[in-house]
Amino acid sequence: MEIDPFIFRLSIFILSIFVGYYVVWSVTPSLHTPLMSVTNAISSVIIVGAIIAALAGTSDKIFETSNIFGFLAIILAAINIFGGFLVTQRMLQMYKKKKNKK
Amino acid sequence: MTPNLSAVFYLLSGILFILALRGLSSPESSRQGNYFGIAGMAIAIIVTFLSINNFGNGFIYVLAFLLIGGSIGAFIAFRIPMTAMPELVAGFHSLVGLAAVFVAIAAFLKPGAFNLGNVGNIKLASLIEMSLGAAIGAITFSGSIIAFLKLRGIMSGSPITFKGQHIINLFLGLGIIFLIYYLCKTQSSNIFWSIVLISFLVGVLLIIPIGGADMPVVISMLNSYSGWAAAGIGFTLENTALIITGALVGSSGAILSYIMCKGMNRSFFNVILGGWGATDQSSTLQTKEQKPVKSGNAEDAAFLMKNASSVIIVPGYGMAVAQAQHALREMVDSLKKNGVKVSYAIHPVAGRMPGHMNVLLAEANVPYDEVFELEEINNDFANCDVAYVIGANDVTNPVAKSDPQSPIYGMPILDVEKSKSVLFVKRSLSPGYAGIDNDLFYRDNTLMLFADAKKMTEEIVKSL
User: Which of B103, B88, B91, B161 is nearest to B136 (CA)?
Assistant: First the structure.
């Protein structure tokens, strides 16, 4: 019997949880706030689903209910992507080492 | 683009996201990590466009909405003050949650676009995945909104509890599972909508009983939920990038919640079930007796610190509220000019979110190699001349080590009382969030500085 593709996805999922576990434990506690904002940004990769939803169907019927939900999701995810990465960048710029003696 | 090729690219963007988190293991590599994250996101978005062959002028609309959202996000990111990071993160979590709900709704209304079958005849597995994604997304959304309102001060930070709360939550939770089962049998859209609505309600009920001081746990937990919601949608869309990201974010939030709970020596369920000190608060207030307290002014503090050889600063949420980080940094600068060795000690649950104090100190240009975590610095208090406690309270309370009756007994605390003298900046002798009196106030080596954290620090700077 052939293996259901779902099982492959489940394997990826579970292995990623383990990867996440070890990677996140190695994050230094002083960067926990940037960690939260960057995880926020990357979880907005859900925009992939939003784009598919927004463009579903033929191009002349672009504003059906499901498309509108797609477009709304695009806005929400885009706020998060730009906001998340930029605020992370802003924070990380502030972490500086002791200045070398002039 | 063929589905196989786009799947490879989605995997690539998933790997870039892993590298983005890996970069955060040290501040030097963190900026590069962030670029990896941005690259991963760009790849995912471009590949999605390329894999939809026939989108006509819809492309323009998508781009327009992307830019609208993007400019709002960029505007917020540049304008937000660092002290408002906890509520910003909570707000962002709510957006991820709502986006997950919307995508799930779109998939339910038009399953054909996602290869999930037809309306009224959606594949069983997809139906379970999308309803789980929608439910977790909805809980994330409404829970984060409540957390946002509490952090912003629009809603009171004190726990809201009522009789039978947990039973209602349990009932609603079981109700969702029951409805998902029925959804699979009937494919009825009414049931789908009910699942979404009940989940919104559960999110609200889940967060209202949790008090302000437990916010670090709540934010981490909602972070985790937003990840699981993304993963649920990832399974529905059969998208590797989303599945990997969801798992990463989910486990990241879970680990942060664990670290925060450990920092308070409380179990996760104890926090979730809410209301710290809601019951013991009254009893401690009654037994409070008048004990002698030594209080001083800015000149005393300046004199003590100027003549010290080492000073440890213990910042807490009060510093964030008073926006005292810049004044603090000025004070440290003048101390350093006098040859005093200064370091900062940060408790895991200081502030309203994980790492909150570190960001504020970084904003005030404090070099990160002068800032230490609890385990790194706790032994140094015994050899330090002055501990300057600014805006922290419960995390310095020696009662956590000595009194098994105390609600915070067993919580790891900073051994501030071991230093030769303690300067404690506080407005009054009122107890902290745990609702218990701080034994430190009455120690012989403690000098209370009754004032606003920022004003007091500024006055000390003047006296130095």
Answer: B103
What dihedral angle (degrees, nearest 10) is formed by the CA atoms of A74, B143, B30, B255? -130
Q: What is the largest CA-CA distance in chain B?
A: 79
Instruction: Give the CA angle between residues B178, B180, B186 to the nearest 5°.
Output: 105
Of residues B198 and B52, more confidence is placed in: B198
Q: A11 touching B, CB under 8 A?
A: no
**Are the C-beta atoms of residues B75 and A41 closer than 8 Å to each other?**
no
Q: Which of B44, B42, B66, B92 is nearest to A71 (CA)?
A: B66
Task: For residues B363 and B10, give the distance between their C-alpha atoms in angstroms, rounded to a whole number.
Answer: 35
Decide if A52 contacts B237 (C-beta within 8 A): yes
DSSP annotation string for B205-254: HHHTTS-GGGHHHHHHHHHHHHHHHHHHHHHHHT-HHHHHHHHHHHHHHH
Give pLDDT, residue B290.
62
| Average pLDDT of every residue of chain B | 87
Q: Specify the pTM.
A: 0.90
Least confident piece of the model among A16-20, B10-14, B209-213: B209-213
A69–B105 CB contact, under 8 Å: yes
**Chain A contacts in chain B segment 227-246 (CB below 8 A):** 227, 230-231, 233-246
Helix runs in chain A, H state only: 5-25, 32-43, 47-54, 65-94
pLDDT of A35: 94
Amino acid identity of residue B291, one-letter, is K
User: Which pLDDT belongs to residue B274?
Assistant: 61
CA dist B346 and A86 (Å) reads 26
